[in-house]
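Hey,
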Amino acid sequence: MTKSKTAALPGTGQGSRNLLIAALAILAVAAIAFLAPAQGYYLNIMMQAATYAIAVAGIVIVLGYCGQLALCQAAFLGIGAYCVALGTVSYQLPFFVGLAIAVVVTGIGGIFLGFASLRLGGHYLAMVTIGFQQIVTLVLTNWISFTRGPDGVSGIPRPTLFGFDLSGGSTYLALCLIFLIAVTLFALELKGSRLGRAMQAVRDNEIAAATCGINVFRTKTVAFGISAALGGLGGGLFAGAFSYISPDQFTFNESIVLLTMALLGGVQSPIGALLGTVLLVVLPEWLRFLRQAYLAVYGAAVIAIMVFLPRGVWGLISERFASRTPAEFGPVTPLPLLSQQVPGTSDAVLEVDGLAKHFGGLKAVDGVSLKVRRGSVHALIGPNGSGKTTFLNVVSGLYTATAGRIRLAGDDITNLPPHERTRRGLCRTYQNIRIFRGLTVLENVMIGAERPGNDVSGPRPTLERALAALDFVGLSKTAHLPVGDLSYGHQRYVEIARALAGSPEILLLDEPAAGLNLTEKQDMAKLLQRLRGHGLTIVIIDHDMKLIERVADQITVLNFGRGIADGEPKTVLSHPEVIAAYLGEPRNEAA
């Protein structure tokens, strides 16, 4: 069994936990110190910071974790506030019932907004969310019969809990801080969870995430829903804190302020969101002694922090104090596929019949058919532009086939999306490496181990499977490092380990030796030879004929999108059409 010290691994949600607990402890002590003497204005400042920080944690999830730029968090803050305000004032509901309604309504609203807009991306998504923000502001302002219009809602009561009165300023602030700490811990646990890793994979590379079995659209939608729900929670608590709300408190300008808070503290960390919120709320108060000049100094300070600390204040702190000590592991249980001794058979695990992919008038793949035998290494070769990578993209679901059929283990997968094909056991690597650069080496491979349909459930088995895959490719000692710190060749091995950790039925390798030096290519050939005979079926594309001859059982040759030869390596490589495709003319044997 694996003896792990996973607490030392950065990025898994464990490595920064001690720092987080220390920071929250300091926050709690500071809050307690201020609770008793604080009155009036200072209490309001602290309650604003606490409630805003909850909403900013939602931005961390949707933008920091999932990489989706949404500029409408103030809209969800306002919806949550109005749910509590109208629920308690107009309908006499208990405060916590109104707060629960706020969370549910905003969560569902976020899911629907995500469902309607996440087919878009980048600035188009940002524009849609700005439009949503403007619509919410207009509704709150003009639906006077329901929202009370520009005059807002006053007299919002604070709650009681089990007979304990929370209407006092200090006690209500304590309630807000409890919610804030709970939300911060939730956001941290989410980052180290399976869903959190899926979000970060989507943020770093949507194509690779899809072919690792992640439903990209669903993951984005869930991130939107959680973010909106946290915005609603913060808004509901905000309404109780100030006993009065109006539409002008939840405009687009406030969405920009919330976004700035997240970026200032560190958008990829919930504790960073907390720090950024406190700084942006408290900093103007600290600078008021400058009188007329304080706004200019405040703006310059915010700009300086964002320019010189691109990862935010918490990013600087975590980098300074985070441990880079390698994790220590005991003996690693080998990958399950390595315990199999399954000889190659004549049964076809992958059948492609008349596959075509046309881009307008360009026939990138034109009627290609092949059968890949179970347990074999099947090479796909051809000159540059012959359609090899396009063929793999169609087989893996990144492109939709123009014509033809694809069967995996007898099941028709022609019209399935990439993540469903991965669920059925089809994993792949890429010619241009697609790794998740915001994650560690271990986290990259854990995402592969969490492939839907894999026989792994729970964090511990997932961790062990990922370590086994890294050990197989010789990278177990680098598990704790950010994947971007590795050399190009080692990043290729991480990509292969990620695919192997999912125990695939068939592995598609798109030029795995590209960019490797001679020694690395020899190591790659040895790695592929070690996989032969263990029941793993491999389809490989590469231009290195020495590598292909060493590992391939069968070769299919493409030229101009069509298959021109198929069979055993010696026969295919001596075929006149193959020689002509590579050299431009048939080889003269006499010469």
